[in-house]
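Q: I have 418 residues here and want to know how they pack in 3D. Can you give me a structure?
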Amino acid sequence: MKIPVLGKYDVIVCGAGPAGCAAAISAANLGAKTLLVEKYGFAGGAAVSQMVGVILSTNAIDFQGIWHLWANRLKKRNGISPVVKSPSHFYPECTWYRSSMNIETVKRVWDELLDDAGVDIIFNAHVYGVLVDKGTIKGVELHTRAGRGVILGKRIVDATGDAIICHEAGVKWDRGIVGKLWPQAVSLNFRTGSKNYWEKTNSTSADIPNTGGRPERLTRKDLKRVDPLDPFAVSDATRKLRRQIWDDSDNLPSDKYLIDTAMELGVRTSRIVRGISQVTDDDAWFCRKHPHSIAKSSWEIDIHPSDDTKIPERWYHSRSKAYGKRAKKIMNGDYFDIPYACIVASGVDNLLMAGRIVSSGYMAQASLRIQQTCMSTGEAAGTAAVLSIIEKKTPRNLDPKLVVKKLERERSKIKRVL
């Protein structure tokens, strides 16, 4: 059966979460003919499909570039609550920046920003394969309601969260850990309502923002020992958690009610791709800097334990003195860098990655998976894709300094929220 070619693009971005949207916007703003491919019928990624409707940062230094463009547009749409500082859960002497967002407005804002940049979009499209010729990726194979089709591209960005493109292309990856199939606990978020919620105008909790006084509260249930790459395990976990939420809702007080549950299980780690370099766990722990940095990561080493084994002192949930010292250091403005080489796939040319799948250690990934850092790596991937086309070099042979300088220039044009 001959599979039709649906289009040809300079840059194809797969996955319309924070990383993918930032990559597509960045590439299109630099003049590339850009396509964004998404499995759902909206942009927004985990913030929408998994109801991760919160904004968290230890020191706000990881808010870079397109994050400010996005947050400013949310603010314009009254879809983001004021950014406040409050104590972190386990280290009360340390504070976090916190905010929350209206999930529906997140969809709208990304749609507007993608439209402004001139990005083409295919929704409800699932990647089932890729085209690789002599070690170079040439395109992606999609299944839509019309059937199978191929999109050809000069550069491909994998922002799928599960590294689907990299996996199909044969790029090496791992789970970040050895001997376990479950890197972190999984979660299912849900919303409840009550006429008694939000009596205060500016909530400092992880609620959806008080835009018009809607009585909604965001909560989650967690589950350990779930393999995020086993479709049966994921399905069973989703049903188990959702049934727990339903059962609990039957016993809510008369003034409270269940609104909805997330459409997708929250997965923090599945595949971590091997790039031409890696940001290591020691890089994250000791807050190391790099001359070819394309993103700053300052979020906690936020590993949600996947089983009942002892929590190491370098994990946020350990409540250890060692971690407390690092937390204070981060609160005061420190961070670690993500070098350019960590977003370039190894073994296959013209393939970049962005978001929680970028080349990193297990602990480092637990920090850089936060949405603002995902946006930064996406912005860098989109920029690098276009620059490599202009320079007529593969991303692995592109001078990282060109990417760093271009990012600095483009980010300086954006009005900062904080």
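Q: Anything worth noting?
A: The chain is about 30% helix and 25% strand. The first strand starts at residue 5 and ends at 14.
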